């Protein structure tokens, strides 16, 4: 095997190992983890769901950090750099800190009978190993896809959170919310709390919690929130918070995510006590790039990784609440397997000009294909749209015609938003991007 000395070397190696990009199943990843004697000696919170996982992880991380805990947070995918997938005490891991963990995975994988791992499985094991060696007080693990058969699920969660469930990855998880909910429910463990923050969860989620005797916390039954324009409050089993400022993450849907976070922290209060002040500060200071992120300046720039019908509906509602803009421009790129018609139909009434973009992955729909699909829903799109080779080129095209009072929305795949963010947030201004 060639010498692997850098993180890009290891990532390229991971991409070559397995014939499939995605192959759900725990047998191979469990076998390697057992050879590594991999375990996390701290409380673990696992977060599954279709939308809201990243926000939920970010709020948990922020509150626990404010409470003084050393946190390790694994999320995927990344926007710009792979190292974003692991945050230790709120900071992206250094590439050099990951290399020993990649080496340990490779040694275990090739010891005796060689075990083939997908890119996601290999990198997940490396990140879990890095967390195990980092001496953290609490680990927050975001499920990559589904739950039951996702590589993250080799770790038994002390508390699971299931956020909103909607139609996505149907070719792998099933054709409806009940099937998808059944897969997400696989992160539950007998006798341990599971927080279901989806206000109307699939019955399959409730049934599985009952079947395995998990400690089920349901939104609207075991915890709830209320609020007005200035502040909000939360009440759950044996605990209440009042007069809370709204989370720093924008969007009406963030209160549902925050409610689930407070339920999880309440369920774990014996293991991970947090003060009311840590909750207040954590919600006030939480940050998460690419989730209804508004970049200051003119024209207004909004970044959002909404890439399925449910998240696009939330983005549409949030855009609608922003008020009047003379023209709204949209930079859009997405994977070919997404349910594009309902996504485009929902947001189309708010968009005046479209800038469709290719993305640097074989899974992506081409810009011309996206344009054709949008045009099929509204023939007028042809006259007010263009196609581009990459997101940053598309954004520059939008900036070249946008007035200062306009709004530009960059949304869709992580590759779309990441392709813009690679320029760096301080440089995302009309002046810099047009030069």
Structure explained in plain terms:
By secondary structure, the chain is of the alpha/beta class. The protein has 2 domains: 7-285, UDP-N-acetylmuramoyl-L-alanine:D-glutamate ligase (3-Layer(aba) Sandwich); 293-434, Alpha-Beta Complex (Protein-Tyrosine Phosphatase, Chain A), CATH 3.90.190. It contains 16 helices and 17 strands. The chain has helices at residues 7-17, 27-36, 53-66, 95-109, 119-133, 170-173, 177-184, 203-212, 254-267, 276-285, 309-320, 340-347, 367-377, 391-401, 414-421, 430-434; strands at 44-48, 71-74, 86-88, 91-92, 138-142, 159-162, 193-196, 215-218, 223-227, 232-236, 239-244, 293-295, 300-304, 328-333, 353-357, 385-388, 407-412. The strands form 3 sheets. The protein has an 8-stranded mixed β-sheet with strand order 4-3-2-5-1-6-7-8, with helices on both faces. A 6-stranded mixed β-sheet has the order 12-13-17-14-15-16. Strands 9-10-11 form a 3-stranded antiparallel β-sheet, covered by helices on one side. Strand 12 (293-295) and strand 13 form a beta hairpin. The chain is globular.
């Amino acid at each position: 095997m060639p010498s692997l000395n850098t993180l890009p070397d290891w990532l390229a190696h991971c991409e070559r190992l397995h014939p499939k990009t995605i192959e759900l199943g725990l047998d191979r990843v469990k076998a390697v983890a057992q050879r590594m004697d991999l375990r996390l000696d701290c409380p673990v919170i696992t977060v599954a769901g279709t939308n809201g996982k990243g926000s939920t992880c970010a709020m948990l991380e922020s509150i626990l950090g404010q409470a003084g805990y050393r946190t390790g947070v694994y999320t995927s995918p990344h926007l710009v750099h792979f190292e974003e997938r692991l945050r230790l005490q709120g900071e992206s891991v250094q590439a050099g800190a990951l290399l020993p963990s990649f080496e340990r995975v490779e040694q275990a994988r090739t010891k005796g009978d060689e075990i083939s791992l997908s890119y996601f499985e290999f990198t997940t094991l490396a990140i879990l190993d890095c967390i195990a060696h980092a001496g953290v007080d609490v680990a927050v693990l975001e499920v990559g896809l589904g739950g039951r058969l996702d590589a993250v699920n080799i770790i038994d969660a002390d508390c699971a959170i299931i956020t909103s469930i909607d139609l996505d990855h149907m070719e792998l998880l099933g054709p409806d919310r009940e099937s998808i909910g059944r897969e997400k429910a696989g992160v539950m463990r007998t006798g341990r709390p599971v927080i279901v923050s989806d206000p109307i969860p699939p019955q399959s989620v409730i049934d599985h919690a009952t079947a395995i005797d998990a400690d089920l916390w349901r939104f609207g039954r075991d915890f709830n929130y209320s609020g007005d324009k200035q502040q909000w409050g939360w009440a759950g089993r044996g605990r209440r918070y009042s007069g809370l400022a709204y989370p720093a993450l924008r969007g009406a849907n963030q209160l549902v995510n925050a409610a689930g976070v407070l339920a999880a922290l309440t369920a774990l209060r014996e293991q991970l006590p947090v003060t009311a002040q840590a909750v207040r500060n954590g919600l006030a200071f939480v940050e998460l790039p690419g989730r209804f992120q508004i970049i200051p300046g003119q024209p207004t720039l909004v970044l959002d990784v909404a890439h399925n019908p449910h998240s696009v509906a939330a983005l549409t509602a949030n855009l609608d609440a922003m008020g009047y803009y003379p023209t709204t421009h949209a930079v859009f790129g997405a994977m070919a397997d997404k349910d594009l018609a309902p996504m485009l139909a929902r947001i189309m009434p708010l968009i005046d000009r479209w800038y469709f973009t290719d993305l640097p992955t074989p899974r992506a729909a081409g810009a011309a294909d996206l344009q054709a699909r949008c045009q099929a829903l509204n023939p007028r799109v042809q006259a007010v749209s263009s196609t581009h080779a990459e997101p940053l080129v598309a954004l520059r095209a939008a900036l070249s015609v946008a007035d200062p009072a306009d709004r530009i929305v960059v949304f869709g795949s992580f590759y779309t938003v990441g392709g813009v963010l690679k320029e760096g947030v301080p440089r995302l201004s009309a002046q810099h991007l047009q030069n």
